[in-house]
Structures are given as C-alpha cells and as structure tokens.
C-alpha cells in the first residue's frame, strides 16, 4: 500500500494520511446535509438525494485517490447544485428530471474532453502567474466562506458586508475553535486543524450550542425516486434552453475543478515546471464521478476545495482520498452523527486554510504591471462575486487583452485566445 501511494517519495505516513482524510471529510461532510436541502427545493426527494450524494462522494473520492494519487475529495459542487435548483428548475421552469439529464450529458462531454486530454492541455497552458493567482484567489474565497459561515461577516443592505454579532454563541464557538487551531498550528502540532474541530465540537455540545445527536445509527434511504431518472429525458436535451444549461454545467464545472486542482497542486507542492503531474487522471476521475452522480440522482461533482484542509493536516497521497471515501461510507450508516459537524466547527478550518493558500500570491511577479492587473482581478473577483469560475474568466480576459495591447500577442498560447472568447461569452451570459 505504501509503495502504491508513494508514501516514501512524498514524505508521509499512515498517521498523517488518515488524519488528513478525517480532516477533509469533516470539512466536506456538510454536503450531506446541504445538498439534499438545496435539491429538495427543486422537487427532488431529500432522502434519495442524501444517499446519492454520499455514494457519489464515495465513488469519486476513491477513484481520485486510486487513479491520480492526489489527496482530493470529490463531491457535488455547491455552486452548481444552487444553479441547478434556483436558476434552471425554479428560474427557467425546467423540470428537475430534465435538468438532471443536462447534468448527465455534460458529464459525458466532461469525460470525452478528459480522455482526449483537452482539459489537461488547457490547464497546462495557463500562464504560471495566473495559476498562482487562481490558487491565491481560491484561498481568499475559502476564507470568505469561513468568515461567513462563522457569522463573523454578515450581509448588509448599505455596505454589502459588515461585522457580525461576535457575541452570539455560534460565532463565539467559531472564534474559540479558530484560536485553538492557531495555537496548535503555530506550535507545529500535526493535525492541529482536526484536533481544533474535535475540541470545538465537544465544547459546543457542553454549552448547548451544538445539539447532541438523538441516535447514532440510522437506516440508508432508498435511491428509487432519483436513480436512472436522467436517462428518461434524453430526447429533451436538444432544446435551445437545455443546451444553454448543459453548456453552463460544462463550463463552470470545468473551471471550478481546474481552479481547485491548480490550488491543491500548488499547496501540496506537486506543481513541476508549470505542469501538474497526472492531471489527466484527476480530471477523468472527477468527470466520471459526475456521470455516476447524474445516474444515481445528484448534480455535477467537482474536486472539493475543502481538500486543502486535509493537505494542511499533512495529506500528500491518494490514500487521503481513500480515507475520505471510507468515512463517507460510514456516514451512510451514521447519518445522525453528522448533525454535530456544524458550520461553526468547520468555519475556522476554512479561514486558516484560506490564509495558507493565499500565501501563493508571493510568487506572482508583482513588479510587472501586465501581470499584476489580471492576477489581482482574478484574486479579488473570486470572493467578491462568490464564484471561482468568474474570477478565472475576468483574469483570463484581462491577461489576453493586455498582452495584445502590448504587442506581445505571440506570447499568448492559441488556446488562451479561444478561452478568452469563451469567457467573454460566459460573462455576458451570467451578467
């Protein structure tokens, strides 16, 4: 096992990998609660979606670990499940059964693009400075999510965001967990983020902030209401409206995963000569997981940025992903225990992981104006628009425009020109 996952080459141990897997799972576990809630608003059976979400995370994470040997968890994309429900089903009035067919078709296209290595080629031609900007921008995005989930930052009608009520019990618990994690990390305690989450959970239950689970073991809900439904509406996929939906699933999922893969590879030190080793294997894994998810009854999957928490805890190989898959398997039987993994517990981990990832900005050539502008826009647009793909799109467009304006159009890879045109169309659509 150690040889297969290259423990020695990557300087890791079973203890580190297991700790990292547990940390990643805890950071991802909310998907088992949130995804069924969101998709139930589209009319889907909540219990069936819970099972589909867990099975997809098991399949995707296991495939990611074995195929690519990357410590990345795979699960339904939080952005695309919201798009599925509120934009496609509720906004456009498309039945969820038909929309799920759109997920199925886009997943097949994902696999084709991955197998013929077009996705890998695109990722590898992205300029190095933009890769660092993407990794850093996702760090700010993750930290922003953590601050929001903790209640430290809340919405404001006048100033868009403002400081939340720091005296509320959930926010105090998040601040407590944050301080504990910081102390453990600066004292070089391996698994400090994980231990911090455990301590915060125990304290939360002691003070009544987190409810004690009513039971430990629960039955696994049936998949019958969602399984195979995506195949029933294939004849509707060629309508203009659904083609737009398919393209959006494909486009946003493509660059959400690309951004995550770049960020994770940079954080873990996998990036070599501006190339991501075995990127194709990772892309095939996540696209195949999307197809599996569509069949069992959930939306497009993606490589989860929460995996960065596991990497911060020491995860360096696919064994971390295998552990994640194993824990999602247990979660199918111990679903009542998931109620104690609250956002107040995971929020501090996201803030700290975001801080670590944002440090990648130091590698950007800040003295070059033609690099600084697209890199800066990429970074700030992700949290401010609450979209990884949007930040990447704006950065790519600016990079190409500036290079052409400087007369350095030959320095821009032809693929970048194609992507720029696509990004312009995408921004025009989402705007």
TrEMBL record:
UniProt key word Membrane: yes
A Pfam family this chain is assigned to: Xan_ur_permease
Segments traversing the membrane: 20-38, 50-67, 100-118, 130-147, 167-186, 193-210, 242-264, 318-339, 371-399, 411-430
Keywords from the UniProt entry: Cell membrane, Membrane, Transmembrane, Transmembrane helix, Transport
Annotated localization: Cell membrane
Membrane topology: Multi-pass membrane protein
Keyword presence, Transport: yes
InterPro entries for the chain: Azg-like, Azg-like_bact_archaea, NCS2
Entry similarity comment: Belongs to the nucleobase:cation symporter-2 (NCS2) (TC 2.A.40) family. Azg-like subfamily.
Protein name per the record: NCS2 family permease
């Amino acid at each position: 096992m150690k040889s297969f996952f290259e423990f020695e080459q990557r300087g890791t141990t079973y203890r580190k990998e297991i700790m990292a897997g547990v940390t990643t799972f805890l950071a991802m576990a909310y998907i088992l609660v949130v995804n069924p809630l969101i998709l139930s608003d589209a009319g889907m059976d909540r219990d069936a979606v819970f099972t589909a979400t867990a099975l997809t995370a098991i399949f995707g994470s296991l495939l990611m670990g074995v195929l690519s040997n990357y410590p990345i968890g795979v699960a339904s994309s939080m952005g695309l499940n919201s798009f599925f429900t509120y934009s496609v089903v509720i906004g456009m009035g498309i039945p969820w059964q038909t929309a799920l067919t759109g997920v199925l078709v886009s997943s097949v296209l994902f696999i084709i693009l991955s197998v013929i290595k077009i996705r890998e080629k695109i990722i590898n031609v992205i300029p190095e400075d933009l890769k660092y900007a993407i990794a850093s921008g996702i760090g700010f995005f993750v930290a922003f999510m953590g601050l929001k989930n903790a209640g430290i930052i809340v919405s404001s009608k006048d100033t868009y965001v403002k400081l939340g009520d720091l005296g509320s019990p959930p926010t105090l618990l998040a601040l407590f967990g944050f301080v504990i994690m910081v102390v453990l990390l600066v004292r070089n305690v391996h698994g400090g983020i994980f231990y911090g989450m455990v301590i915060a959970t125990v304290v939360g239950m002691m003070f009544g902030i987190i409810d004690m689970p009513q039971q430990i073991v629960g039955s696994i809900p049936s998949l019958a209401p969602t399984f195979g439904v995506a195949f029933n509406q294939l004849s509707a996929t060629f309508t203009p409206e659904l083609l737009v939906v398919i393209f959006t699933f494909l486009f946003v999922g493509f660059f959400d995963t690309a951004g995550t893969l770049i960020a994770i590879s940079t954080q873990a030190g996998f990036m070599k000569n501006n190339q991501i080793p075995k990127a194709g294997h990772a892309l095939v894994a996540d696209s195949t997981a999307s197809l599996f998810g569509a069949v069992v009854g959930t939306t497009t999957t993606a490589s989860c940025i929460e995996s960065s928490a596991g990497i911060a805890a020491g995860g360096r190989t696919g064994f971390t992903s295998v552990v994640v898959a194993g824990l999602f398997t247990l979660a199918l039987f111990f679903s009542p225990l998931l109620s104690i993994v609250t956002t107040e517990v995971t929020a501090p981990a996201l803030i700290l992981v975001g801080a670590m990832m944002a440090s990648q900005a130091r590698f950007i050539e800040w003295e070059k104006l033609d690099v600084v502008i697209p890199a800066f826009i990429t970074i700030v647009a992700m949290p401010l628009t609450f979209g990884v793909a949007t930040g990447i799109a704006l950065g790519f467009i600016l990079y190409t425009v500036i290079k052409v304006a400087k007369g350095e159009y030959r320095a821009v890879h032809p693929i970048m020109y194609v992507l720029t045109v696509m990004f312009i169309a995408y921004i025009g659509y989402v705007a």
